[in-house]
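User: Hello! I'm new to structural biology and keep hearing that structure can be predicted from sequence alone. Could you demonstrate with PTS system, sucrose-specific IIC component? Please show me the input and the output so I can see what each looks like.

Assistant: Of course. The first part below is the input, the amino acid sequence of PTS system, sucrose-specific IIC component. The second part is the output, the predicted structure written as tokens.
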Amino acid sequence: MDSLQLSKEILKALGGKENIQEFDICATRLRIFLKDNEKADLRAIKQLKGVIAAVFRLGQVHIILGTGLVSKVYEDFKYLVSDNELDTKDIKNKNFFRRIANIFIPLIPALVGSGIIIGISNTLKNIGLVSEQSDIYKLLEMFSSSVFVFLNIFVGISAGREFGTNPMLAGVVSGILMHPMLESIGQISIFGFRAYTKVGAGGIFAVLLVVFFMSYVEKTLRKIIPNSLDLIITPATTIIITGLCAVYILSPLGIYLTSAFSSIIRFAFYKWKVVTGFLLGGVYSALVTTGLHQGLNPLYLEMLSTTGVNPILPIIAMADTAQAGAGLAVYFKSKNIKLKKISLNSVVICLLGITEPMMFGCNIPLVKPFIAGLMGGAIGGCFVAFFEVNAISLGLSSIPIISIIKQGDVLKYIVGFFIAFSTAFIGTYLMGFEDDIKIDDIKIK
């Protein structure tokens, strides 16, 4: 079954396009809000070839398809319902975390790809195959850093789509904050009003503020400018108004927000690091089940831009690793042949950083393994936080994240990995689970 046919079958089982309220995509799953949940046939969806699992969580349907396939199905699904007036464009009804998630989810492939290239270049350097002065290393460094050099513009374009404004105009006003001329000007004075400028001042917070403000400017102008003059007047006026507000108001506000954020991070990860690691490692898997974990993406990026390291990623990697440990215990303890197959296949995927098949296909239905996974994530997160293990990029987890762990922290991360994994494994084995649970409608390819 190809992705288009699968999309048609999923749409049919959800009650048709008229029943679709809105939908989003995550790394491995579709998240769909329905107008009438009673019309959805999850059992039929679970029986479709290519579907790993399908569940209701917090009023939305989660259809787990795995990496690669989910992107194809999402595009086909979007095409199938494109002539229906979806509420996806109506951002007024979206909560804060979902808006933030929708902005940063499209950036994940670029960030993951860059993170992997960073890992490759660091590995080649550490084993002595290349030096920092070699052309190969310089090229790899350029390839991996380009996404971070232009990150504000990428975020601006994505935010423009989410806020219902022109994405390219959003990219332009975001680019204003990154323009090299800001550094040479230093101080701007117009009609006696002064603004002190600096390239990238305010970071991602400033970009989000600027694009959000621009969305209202553009929409207001389009209401009052005649259609015949819209193309000539609206874009230029939008850029000028937004640009002035960005330089004089929003960028300085972004600086204050960034400073406050940095202070909170320093307090959380250096003063209360053990508590932070325990809590974040313990609750992260629960956040994944709701999609709220995507709301952490701007925090990762802001930390990298302000401190050069990311202490959050190693902590949440402990949560992912712990779910794999719990799943492996299910494999060894279960007498259910199908459950053993599901758990073993999911463990491999989970150790590569994709946790949804493990959680939705095995641990959550069994309950106790999921709880043991939360415990393992908390203990492992506590350990790596205490020893201040940091990543130098983002987008990876569990085993692959080792390639982007800061040099000198790798051994401490590996110890934390085994602590999280073994804690969840032992917890699951000791607590046990209902081995005869009906999982006939759950399947793993």
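User: So the tokens describe the shape?

Assistant: Right, they're a compact way of writing down the 3D structure. Reading them back into a model, for example: Residues 272-431 form one domain.
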